[in-house]
Design goal:
18 helices, mainly alpha, disordered N terminus
Length: 477
């Protein structure tokens, strides 16, 4: 797992890692879908494992893993994979480490602001039953975020760019200082989107760690070993527990959030594999048959589905045995690579195998795999599944050239911020102001029609973001 040579990492020039975009797009759209499907009597695998139907009361002692529990780790893994691609580009341009540090901290500030502002303008935070005024505020928040986060064309004059940004920030400040909420309170740093807060922490610390360890994967994994020590020792009284629980700014940072580096840092390793592949200029004829590529795609996807089904069914030893069998076959399929594409797939598969087996060994520990509070097995197993899903997308996109089949995922993966806010701050407000929301609810009663309603909202969002992306409009921090 260590890169023995100390080759420099430079930015890609000719290729784009579309499979990373697809993975990110899949993660963000399934994350959105999981948030809009109705509570009720759908099967338990349609919800977080610790929030089972019909009452959806949080049960921290209930183990299991559903597709809903997987979507956040997939997004974290994709975030980690993007770190080497972004920072190596800056290193290639000759930027100093101080300049890159400034970029990392600025990005962290913008993500933190995004988490706080977004929560303040969510319609159902403004009121449990939003009315026209709440929908309009949510829409105004969406337009303000457009002004702040859109990457404006460099061809625009500087005064126009500064004016747009200035109007966005001014509008954000006005809303934050004037809005009141059902409990009578106003602006609060603690009113924030917890998912984005976690992303803020791991994006900053993951970037800093990669910058320090870009020459050594082994050193990077060693840092995870230290973090694992903190994670395990924090459960017992002592100085480690005190450090674990201490935070000078608890509204934005907790050491607990850095547990998700168990997913992000392996993601950076995947990003380096893609970086090497993207930089390669020569091609060799493939030694693998089309059937071998197809079998690799099928088995990696099958392994993910099997893990979700069997871990949720609590068939622990059966899961371990079947996973090991599949992993042996997958390892056999990726033997003897002769070109860069085959080496990429071999590396992704081998790392996926390692994390899956390690995660299943930890599975009985802490009462079984759980998302909340997340267990060691949860981090390791979902990391392995992320490697496998990325392998699947790489085969489909980079070997079989299946871009046209996954274009919707790719477009949304290139614009995840808009996808994340689009339903609550654009689609629902528009439908609400047009009085279409109540009509849609009337024609989709019951749990399964309610699920189809959620699919409709998600597809509507996906096509909206795709149109925005194809017009080269991006939100960036």
């Amino acid at each position: 797992m260590n890169r023995s040579d100390n080759q420099s990492l430079t930015a890609p020039t000719a290729r784009r890692a579309l499979s990373l975009d697809a993975l990110r797009g899949f993660a963000i759209l399934t994350m959105v879908l999981s948030g809009v499907i109705p509570y009720g009597i759908l099967p338990s695998w349609m919800y977080h494992a610790q929030l089972p139907p019909p009452d959806h009361h949080f049960n921290p002692g209930l183990p299991g893993l559903t597709w809903v529990d997987l979507v956040f780790p997939l997004f974290l893994f994709a975030l980690g994979a993007a770190i080497p691609l972004a920072l190596s580009r800056r290193l290639e341009k000759g930027q100093s480490y101080l300049s890159i540090l400034k970029y990392i901290l600025e990005r962290g500030f913008l993500l933190g602001f995004f988490a706080i502002f977004l929560r303040h303008v969510r319609p159902h935070v403004l009121d449990n039953t939003p009315e026209s005024a709440d929908w309009l505020i949510a829409l105004a928040g969406f337009m303000i975020m457009f002004a702040i986060f859109t990457r404006l064309p460099h061809s625009w004059k500087n005064w126009i760019r500064w004016t747009v940004k200035g109007l966005g920030w001014s509008g954000a400040i006005i809303l934050l200082v004037t809005l009141t909420y059902p409990d009578g309170t106003g602006f609060s740093l603690y009113r924030s989107d917890i998912i984005i807060i976690v992303l803020t922490n791991v994006a900053v610390f993951g970037s800093l760690i990669w910058l320090l360890t870009s020459h050594s994967i082994l050193l990077r994994m060693g840092i995870l070993g230290i973090l694992l020590g903190f994670r395990l020792a924090s459960q017992h009284a002592g100085w480690v527990q005190s450090v674990w629980e201490f935070s000078p700014v608890p509204w934005i940072y907790k050491l607990y959030y850095l547990q998700y580096l168990f997913i992000v840092l392996p993601g950076t390793v995947a990003g380096e594999f893609f970086l090497k592949w993207m930089q390669s200029n020569h091609k060799k004829n493939s030694s693998w048959s089309p059937g071998r590529f197809s079998a690799l795609a099928v088995l990696t996807l099958l392994c993910i589905i099997m893990l979700l089904v069997l871990l949720q069914a609590r068939l622990s030893w059966q899961t371990a045995v079947l996973t090991i069998i599949l992993c042996v076959v997958i390892r056999w399929l990726v033997r003897n690579p002769v070109n860069e594409m085959e080496q990429l797939l071999k590396s992704l598969s081998e790392w996926g195998i390692y994390f899956l087996i390690a995660g299943l060994i930890f599975e009985p520990y802490e009462g079984g795999i759980k998302k909340d509070k997340s267990t060691v097995s949860y981090y390791l197993v979902t990391t392995g599944m992320s490697f496998f899903l990325l392998t699947f997308f790489s085969v489909i996109l980079d070997h079989f050239s299946g871009k046209k089949y996954l274009k919707l995922l790719i477009d949304n993966g290139q614009n995840p911020m808009i996808a994340y806010v689009g339903i609550a701050n654009f689609i629902w407000p528009v439908l609400g102001l047009l009085s279409l929301d109540s009509f849609i609810l009337q024609i989709t009663p019951g749990p399964w029609l309610g699920f189809l309603r959620g699919v409709f909202y998600t597809l509507l969002l996906a096509f909206m973001v795709s149109i925005i992306t194809r017009n080269k409009i991006y939100w960036k921090t």
